[in-house]
Write a structure and sequence with these properties.
By secondary structure, the protein is of the alpha+beta class. Helices cover 42% and strands 26% of the residues.
Length: 325
């Protein structure tokens, strides 16, 4: 997938094979890379090519709002994940939509090689393009017919992916070890990401159809999706009320009815889930650091909530993991 700027932004100042210096991602072993700097923006790309799919990891630094095109002569299906920033406007298959941070879409290209036009604001952005080739057709038809059959919903958009789905994408651009980058592992990972995408799409569509005439229920579900997406953020009832234009009492009542727990309880539950992931996969993190990352202002509050859930302190839980290993 080549990123092509509009004609008035095409003048290249520098180019090479580096990665943006401000990028949170270091150079990935096994991926090729290049860097280009234009008058109004610069970008780096790390990419991996295989018989069934290609992966492109783009990072942009924009001095001003820009318009760019994503294009590939052989792209038949595209799975796209926006890690950082909000893309103001994407034009794809004659449809316009906004893409929020931590969101994803799947598109069946109506005309192979069609360009995707994006309007992107000033700032830093990172996104992953997974270009599925004709060799993937048998896998898509066998496992993911729901994606291919949605001709009226193309592209298929999922806003605010839950933190677990985000971590699957992160294994591509922030691999924990080199084993994850073996071709067989990457192939399995792409299939897992597709499978998760299908599951989330079907479950959200089912809920939407069941609550089509209930705007409040849909907004409450969007609140849940937001908490799932950012479990480490501080979600106050006042802030949620303002963001979703719902009264605090309505949020409290309907959230409890739909999910059998309060907003506060659900936030704590998701933070603890996130903490388990960090305790198991980042053994160098102190308990205090885990607490802060997960949104707990006080370590003792985190320890108390963790013990209520598991009957163990976070330290004891980690020790059990270490013994098993």
């Amino acid at each position: 997938m080549e990123l092509i700027p509009e004609s008035n932004q095409k003048e290249i100042i520098t180019k090479g094979n580096a990665v943006l210096s401000s990028s949170k991602n270091s150079k990935i072993n096994g991926f090729k890379s290049f860097f280009k700097e234009y008058i109004s923006f610069s970008h780096s790309c790390q990419y991996y090519l295989s018989p069934h799919f290609d992966i492109y990891i783009y990072q942009l630094e924009n001095k001003e709002a820009i318009q760019v095109f994503l294009q590939s002569a052989s792209c038949k299906w595209l799975l796209f994940y926006l890690d950082t920033g909000n893309i103001q406007l994407i034009n794809l298959n004659d449809k316009n939509f906004e893409l929020l941070e931590k969101s994803s879409f799947f598109a069946s290209m109506q005309v192979v090689g069609n360009a995707i036009k994006m309007t992107i604001g000033k700032g830093q952005y990172s996104f992953v393009c997974c270009k599925l080739k004709s060799g993937s057709e048998s896998i898509l038809i066998h496992y993911y017919t729901t994606l291919l059959n949605n001709v009226d919903e193309n592209p298929i958009l999922i806003d605010s992916l839950d933190s677990k789905s985000q971590r699957e994408w992160e294994k591509i651009f922030e691999p924990i070890d080199l084993v994850e980058l073996l071709p067989s592992k990457l192939n399995s990972l792409v299939q897992l990401i597709l499978s998760n995408f299908c599951f989330i799409h079907k479950s959200r569509k089912l809920f939407s159809s069941q609550t089509e005439s209930d705007l409040i229920a849909q907004k409450i579900h969007s609140i849940k999706n937001l908490i799932d997406c950012y479990p480490f953020k501080r979600h106050t009832l006042y802030g949620l009320s303002t963001k979703f234009n719902l009264g605090i009492r309505i949020i409290k009542l309907h959230f409890k009815q739909l999910f059998n727990k309060s907003v506060f309880q659900y936030c704590i539950e998701k933070r603890i889930e996130y903490a388990i992931y960090l305790l198991e996969n980042h053994l160098d993190y102190s308990i205090k650091k885990v607490a802060l990352i997960c949104g707990f202002r006080k370590t003792q509050h985190f320890i108390r909530q963790f013990q209520q859930k598991f009957g163990l302190s976070p330290g004891q839980y980690r020790n059990k993991i270490l013994i098993k290993r």
